[in-house]
UniProtKB/TrEMBL annotation:
Superkingdom field: Bacteria
Protein name, per record: YafY family transcriptional regulator
InterPro entries with a match to the protein in the record: CBASS_pafABC_assoc_protein (IPR051534), HTH_11 (IPR013196), WH-like_DNA-bd_sf (IPR036388), WH_DNA-bd_sf (IPR036390), WYL_dom (IPR026881)
Limits of the Helix-turn-helix type domain: 8-61
WYL domain ranges (all copies): 140-207
Organism: Cohnella zeiphila
Length: 330
Protein backbone atom coordinates (compact mmCIF):
# COMPACT_ATOMS: atom_id res chain seq x y z
CA UNK A 1 0.00 0.00 0.00
CA UNK A 2 1.08 3.61 -0.58
CA UNK A 3 2.04 5.86 2.30
CA UNK A 4 -1.16 7.88 1.85
CA UNK A 5 -3.25 4.71 2.08
CA UNK A 6 -1.38 3.61 5.21
CA UNK A 7 -1.93 7.00 6.81
CA UNK A 8 -5.68 6.95 6.08
CA UNK A 9 -5.92 3.36 7.36
CA UNK A 10 -4.17 4.26 10.63
CA UNK A 11 -6.38 7.32 10.98
CA UNK A 12 -9.49 5.19 10.46
CA UNK A 13 -8.37 2.57 12.98
CA UNK A 14 -7.60 5.17 15.64
CA UNK A 15 -10.93 6.91 15.07
CA UNK A 16 -12.94 3.72 15.26
CA UNK A 17 -10.92 1.54 17.60
CA UNK A 18 -9.76 3.86 20.36
CA UNK A 19 -6.23 3.43 21.77
CA UNK A 20 -3.86 1.14 19.81
CA UNK A 21 -0.15 0.41 20.08
CA UNK A 22 2.22 0.73 17.14
CA UNK A 23 2.56 -3.07 17.06
CA UNK A 24 -1.21 -3.54 16.99
CA UNK A 25 -1.48 -1.12 14.09
CA UNK A 26 1.35 -2.88 12.25
CA UNK A 27 -0.29 -6.27 12.75
CA UNK A 28 -3.70 -5.05 11.66
CA UNK A 29 -2.39 -3.48 8.46
CA UNK A 30 0.33 -6.10 7.87
CA UNK A 31 3.08 -3.49 7.59
CA UNK A 32 6.41 -2.94 9.37
CA UNK A 33 6.28 -1.12 12.71
CA UNK A 34 8.75 1.47 11.41
CA UNK A 35 6.20 2.30 8.69
CA UNK A 36 3.65 2.92 11.44
CA UNK A 37 6.00 5.35 13.19
CA UNK A 38 6.64 7.25 9.94
CA UNK A 39 2.92 7.48 9.18
CA UNK A 40 2.16 8.66 12.72
CA UNK A 41 4.80 11.39 12.36
CA UNK A 42 3.30 12.49 9.02
CA UNK A 43 -0.22 12.57 10.44
CA UNK A 44 0.93 14.72 13.36
CA UNK A 45 2.76 17.07 10.98
CA UNK A 46 -0.45 17.49 8.95
CA UNK A 47 -2.38 18.58 12.04
CA UNK A 48 -4.01 15.37 13.31
CA UNK A 49 -3.96 15.54 17.16
CA UNK A 50 -2.56 12.07 17.90
CA UNK A 51 -1.70 11.51 21.58
CA UNK A 52 0.89 8.91 22.66
CA UNK A 53 0.09 7.51 26.11
CA UNK A 54 3.14 5.82 27.76
CA UNK A 55 3.10 2.69 29.93
CA UNK A 56 2.03 -0.92 29.57
CA UNK A 57 -1.58 0.02 28.85
CA UNK A 58 -0.62 2.95 26.67
CA UNK A 59 -0.70 3.43 22.93
CA UNK A 60 -1.82 5.94 20.33
CA UNK A 61 -5.18 7.66 20.39
CA UNK A 62 -6.83 10.66 18.76
CA UNK A 63 -8.11 13.65 20.69
CA UNK A 64 -11.79 13.00 21.33
CA UNK A 65 -13.08 16.25 19.81
CA UNK A 66 -11.20 15.50 16.59
CA UNK A 67 -12.49 11.96 16.33
CA UNK A 68 -16.05 13.27 16.57
CA UNK A 69 -15.59 15.86 13.82
CA UNK A 70 -16.33 15.05 10.16
CA UNK A 71 -13.30 14.66 7.89
CA UNK A 72 -15.27 14.80 4.62
CA UNK A 73 -16.89 17.77 2.88
CA UNK A 74 -20.21 17.57 1.09
CA UNK A 75 -20.57 18.81 -2.50
CA UNK A 76 -21.65 22.34 -1.57
CA UNK A 77 -18.76 22.65 0.92
CA UNK A 78 -16.31 21.50 -1.75
CA UNK A 79 -17.70 24.08 -4.18
CA UNK A 80 -17.42 26.84 -1.57
CA UNK A 81 -13.79 25.93 -0.83
CA UNK A 82 -12.65 25.95 -4.47
CA UNK A 83 -14.49 29.24 -5.11
CA UNK A 84 -12.91 30.81 -2.01
CA UNK A 85 -9.49 29.68 -3.23
CA UNK A 86 -10.12 31.45 -6.55
CA UNK A 87 -10.90 34.73 -4.79
CA UNK A 88 -7.90 34.36 -2.47
CA UNK A 89 -5.43 33.63 -5.25
CA UNK A 90 -6.62 36.55 -7.38
CA UNK A 91 -6.34 38.88 -4.36
CA UNK A 92 -2.68 37.93 -3.94
CA UNK A 93 -3.21 35.76 -0.86
CA UNK A 94 0.28 35.38 0.66
CA UNK A 95 0.03 31.61 1.29
CA UNK A 96 -0.92 30.51 -2.20
CA UNK A 97 1.32 27.44 -2.28
CA UNK A 98 -0.36 26.01 0.81
CA UNK A 99 -3.77 26.90 -0.65
CA UNK A 100 -2.98 25.07 -3.89
CA UNK A 101 -1.82 22.02 -1.93
CA UNK A 102 -5.05 22.04 0.08
CA UNK A 103 -7.23 22.17 -3.05
CA UNK A 104 -5.11 19.45 -4.71
CA UNK A 105 -5.60 17.32 -1.61
CA UNK A 106 -9.34 17.94 -1.77
CA UNK A 107 -9.36 16.76 -5.40
CA UNK A 108 -7.16 13.76 -4.68
CA UNK A 109 -9.51 12.27 -2.12
CA UNK A 110 -12.75 12.64 -4.06
CA UNK A 111 -14.40 10.18 -6.40
CA UNK A 112 -14.61 10.74 -10.15
CA UNK A 113 -18.10 12.27 -10.01
CA UNK A 114 -17.10 14.74 -7.27
CA UNK A 115 -13.88 15.66 -9.09
CA UNK A 116 -15.80 16.40 -12.30
CA UNK A 117 -18.18 18.63 -10.36
CA UNK A 118 -15.31 20.49 -8.65
CA UNK A 119 -13.59 21.14 -11.98
CA UNK A 120 -16.86 22.36 -13.51
CA UNK A 121 -17.42 24.83 -10.66
CA UNK A 122 -13.80 26.03 -10.91
CA UNK A 123 -14.30 26.78 -14.61
CA UNK A 124 -17.57 28.58 -13.89
CA UNK A 125 -16.11 31.30 -11.64
CA UNK A 126 -13.55 33.95 -12.58
CA UNK A 127 -12.20 36.95 -10.66
CA UNK A 128 -10.64 39.91 -12.46
CA UNK A 129 -8.11 41.66 -10.27
CA UNK A 130 -4.45 42.59 -10.29
CA UNK A 131 -2.89 40.38 -7.60
CA UNK A 132 0.04 41.26 -5.38
CA UNK A 133 3.45 40.50 -6.88
CA UNK A 134 5.88 37.93 -5.50
CA UNK A 135 7.85 40.46 -3.43
CA UNK A 136 4.69 41.89 -1.90
CA UNK A 137 3.37 38.41 -1.13
CA UNK A 138 6.62 37.59 0.68
CA UNK A 139 6.25 40.75 2.77
CA UNK A 140 2.64 39.84 3.51
CA UNK A 141 3.81 36.44 4.78
CA UNK A 142 6.33 38.14 7.09
CA UNK A 143 3.73 40.63 8.34
CA UNK A 144 1.13 37.92 8.99
CA UNK A 145 3.65 35.81 10.91
CA UNK A 146 4.83 38.84 12.91
CA UNK A 147 1.22 39.80 13.74
CA UNK A 148 0.39 36.26 14.85
CA UNK A 149 3.50 35.83 17.03
CA UNK A 150 3.85 39.42 18.29
CA UNK A 151 7.27 40.14 16.75
CA UNK A 152 8.37 43.70 15.91
CA UNK A 153 9.69 44.22 12.37
CA UNK A 154 12.11 46.76 10.93
CA UNK A 155 10.32 48.28 7.95
CA UNK A 156 11.62 50.58 5.23
CA UNK A 157 8.67 52.38 3.66
CA UNK A 158 8.35 54.71 0.67
CA UNK A 159 5.34 56.96 1.15
CA UNK A 160 5.85 58.61 -2.25
CA UNK A 161 5.21 62.31 -2.96
CA UNK A 162 8.93 62.84 -3.56
CA UNK A 163 9.98 61.87 -0.05
CA UNK A 164 12.72 59.28 0.35
CA UNK A 165 12.18 55.86 1.99
CA UNK A 166 12.25 55.83 5.81
CA UNK A 167 13.18 52.97 8.14
CA UNK A 168 11.07 52.45 11.22
CA UNK A 169 10.32 49.82 13.87
CA UNK A 170 6.77 48.59 13.37
CA UNK A 171 4.45 46.36 15.42
CA UNK A 172 2.03 44.82 12.89
CA UNK A 173 -1.38 44.17 14.42
CA UNK A 174 -2.86 42.74 11.22
CA UNK A 175 -3.11 42.85 7.43
CA UNK A 176 -6.22 43.98 5.53
CA UNK A 177 -7.23 43.55 1.87
CA UNK A 178 -9.38 46.42 0.63
CA UNK A 179 -10.28 47.68 -2.86
CA UNK A 180 -7.63 45.56 -4.56
CA UNK A 181 -4.78 46.62 -2.26
CA UNK A 182 -3.18 45.14 0.86
CA UNK A 183 -2.57 47.22 3.99
CA UNK A 184 -0.88 46.55 7.30
CA UNK A 185 -2.03 48.25 10.49
CA UNK A 186 -0.06 48.63 13.72
CA UNK A 187 2.12 50.80 15.93
CA UNK A 188 4.77 52.88 14.14
CA UNK A 189 7.88 53.35 16.28
CA UNK A 190 9.03 56.30 14.16
CA UNK A 191 5.86 58.39 14.54
CA UNK A 192 4.96 56.84 17.91
CA UNK A 193 1.33 56.31 16.93
CA UNK A 194 -1.01 53.85 15.25
CA UNK A 195 -0.59 53.91 11.47
CA UNK A 196 -1.58 52.00 8.35
CA UNK A 197 0.74 51.30 5.42
CA UNK A 198 0.23 50.00 1.89
CA UNK A 199 2.27 46.84 1.56
CA UNK A 200 3.19 47.48 -2.09
CA UNK A 201 5.19 50.52 -0.89
CA UNK A 202 7.30 48.56 1.58
CA UNK A 203 10.90 48.51 0.34
CA UNK A 204 12.36 46.16 2.93
CA UNK A 205 11.08 44.15 5.89
CA UNK A 206 13.10 42.31 8.53
CA UNK A 207 12.11 40.45 11.69
CA UNK A 208 13.72 41.65 14.95
CA UNK A 209 14.21 40.01 18.35
CA UNK A 210 11.75 42.44 20.00
CA UNK A 211 8.19 41.49 20.90
CA UNK A 212 4.92 43.39 21.43
CA UNK A 213 1.41 42.78 22.71
CA UNK A 214 -1.60 43.65 20.58
CA UNK A 215 -4.30 45.71 22.40
CA UNK A 216 -7.36 43.72 23.40
CA UNK A 217 -10.32 43.89 21.00
CA UNK A 218 -8.31 45.89 18.46
CA UNK A 219 -9.68 45.73 14.90
CA UNK A 220 -7.24 46.44 12.06
CA UNK A 221 -10.19 46.66 9.65
CA UNK A 222 -12.03 49.32 11.69
CA UNK A 223 -8.86 51.37 12.18
CA UNK A 224 -8.11 51.32 8.46
CA UNK A 225 -11.64 52.36 7.49
CA UNK A 226 -11.54 55.25 9.96
CA UNK A 227 -8.26 56.39 8.43
CA UNK A 228 -9.42 56.09 4.82
CA UNK A 229 -12.85 57.58 5.45
CA UNK A 230 -12.27 59.99 8.35
CA UNK A 231 -14.82 62.66 7.46
CA UNK A 232 -17.37 60.07 6.30
CA UNK A 233 -17.26 58.26 9.65
CA UNK A 234 -16.72 61.16 12.06
CA UNK A 235 -20.01 61.87 13.84
CA UNK A 236 -19.46 65.63 14.22
CA UNK A 237 -19.28 66.22 10.45
CA UNK A 238 -22.09 63.96 9.18
CA UNK A 239 -24.66 65.38 6.78
CA UNK A 240 -27.87 63.66 5.62
CA UNK A 241 -27.81 62.79 1.90
CA UNK A 242 -31.05 61.57 0.28
CA UNK A 243 -30.89 60.10 -3.23
CA UNK A 244 -33.72 58.78 -5.42
CA UNK A 245 -33.35 56.75 -8.55
CA UNK A 246 -33.66 53.45 -10.40
CA UNK A 247 -33.26 50.36 -8.22
CA UNK A 248 -30.29 49.09 -10.19
CA UNK A 249 -28.45 52.41 -9.81
CA UNK A 250 -29.13 52.52 -6.07
CA UNK A 251 -27.93 48.94 -5.68
CA UNK A 252 -24.69 49.78 -7.50
CA UNK A 253 -24.28 52.89 -5.37
CA UNK A 254 -24.67 50.75 -2.25
CA UNK A 255 -21.70 48.62 -3.37
CA UNK A 256 -19.47 51.69 -3.62
CA UNK A 257 -16.67 51.79 -1.02
CA UNK A 258 -17.91 55.11 0.42
CA UNK A 259 -21.70 54.91 0.11
CA UNK A 260 -21.87 51.28 1.21
CA UNK A 261 -20.44 52.19 4.64
CA UNK A 262 -22.52 55.36 4.98
CA UNK A 263 -25.99 54.06 4.08
CA UNK A 264 -28.54 54.37 6.91
CA UNK A 265 -31.86 53.81 5.13
CA UNK A 266 -32.92 51.98 1.98
CA UNK A 267 -36.46 52.15 0.66
CA UNK A 268 -38.06 51.53 -2.70
CA UNK A 269 -36.42 53.93 -5.14
CA UNK A 270 -34.63 55.86 -2.39
CA UNK A 271 -31.54 55.60 -0.20
CA UNK A 272 -30.29 57.76 2.66
CA UNK A 273 -26.63 58.21 3.62
CA UNK A 274 -24.68 60.16 6.22
CA UNK A 275 -21.52 61.66 4.76
CA UNK A 276 -18.95 64.25 5.78
CA UNK A 277 -19.63 67.77 4.60
CA UNK A 278 -16.10 68.22 3.24
CA UNK A 279 -16.46 65.06 1.12
CA UNK A 280 -19.71 66.42 -0.38
CA UNK A 281 -17.83 69.43 -1.67
CA UNK A 282 -14.81 67.54 -3.01
CA UNK A 283 -14.94 63.96 -4.35
CA UNK A 284 -18.56 62.82 -3.80
CA UNK A 285 -19.92 64.74 -6.86
CA UNK A 286 -17.43 62.92 -9.09
CA UNK A 287 -18.66 59.56 -7.73
CA UNK A 288 -22.27 60.47 -8.54
CA UNK A 289 -21.87 62.00 -12.00
CA UNK A 290 -21.37 58.65 -13.83
CA UNK A 291 -24.92 57.61 -12.80
CA UNK A 292 -26.31 60.49 -14.88
CA UNK A 293 -30.09 60.76 -14.97
CA UNK A 294 -30.52 57.38 -13.24
CA UNK A 295 -30.35 59.16 -9.87
CA UNK A 296 -31.51 62.46 -8.39
CA UNK A 297 -30.17 64.13 -5.25
CA UNK A 298 -33.03 65.32 -3.03
CA UNK A 299 -30.89 66.85 -0.28
CA UNK A 300 -28.70 68.58 0.83
CA UNK A 301 -28.76 71.68 -1.34
CA UNK A 302 -24.97 72.08 -1.02
CA UNK A 303 -24.41 68.80 -2.86
CA UNK A 304 -26.94 69.69 -5.61
CA UNK A 305 -25.22 73.05 -6.07
CA UNK A 306 -21.78 71.40 -6.26
CA UNK A 307 -23.02 68.83 -8.79
CA UNK A 308 -24.34 71.64 -11.00
CA UNK A 309 -21.03 73.48 -10.73
CA UNK A 310 -18.96 70.42 -11.59
CA UNK A 311 -21.27 69.45 -14.45
CA UNK A 312 -21.08 72.96 -15.90
CA UNK A 313 -17.30 72.89 -15.69
CA UNK A 314 -17.17 69.54 -17.45
CA UNK A 315 -19.52 70.79 -20.17
CA UNK A 316 -17.26 73.83 -20.77
CA UNK A 317 -14.20 71.56 -20.85
CA UNK A 318 -15.62 69.23 -23.49
CA UNK A 319 -17.08 72.09 -25.52
CA UNK A 320 -13.60 73.66 -25.67
CA UNK A 321 -12.20 70.25 -26.67
CA UNK A 322 -14.82 70.00 -29.42
CA UNK A 323 -14.04 73.51 -30.70
CA UNK A 324 -10.30 72.77 -30.82
CA UNK A 325 -10.87 69.54 -32.70
CA UNK A 326 -13.15 71.31 -35.20
CA UNK A 327 -10.59 74.08 -35.80
CA UNK A 328 -7.84 71.52 -36.49
CA UNK A 329 -10.03 69.79 -39.05
CA UNK A 330 -10.85 73.13 -40.67
Amino acid sequence: MSKATNMLSILWLLRSGGRMTAQQLADELEIHIRTVYRCIDSLCASGVPIIADPGRSGGYRILETFSESPLLFDLDEQKALVHASTFAQEAGYPFQEALVRAIDKLKRYTNEKQLTRIERHLEGLSVIQTPAGEKEQERLRVLEEAAATGITVEMTYDKGKGAGPEARPFDPYGIVHWKGSWYTVGYCGLRREMRSFRTDRIIDLQMTDRRFGRPAAFSAKEFLMNQLLPDALASETLVLVRIRGHEHALEELGRHWLFGHAQTERGEGEAVYRLGLSSLLTYVPYFLLPYGRAISVVEPYELIEKLAEVSSGLADHYQAMKDQSKSRKG
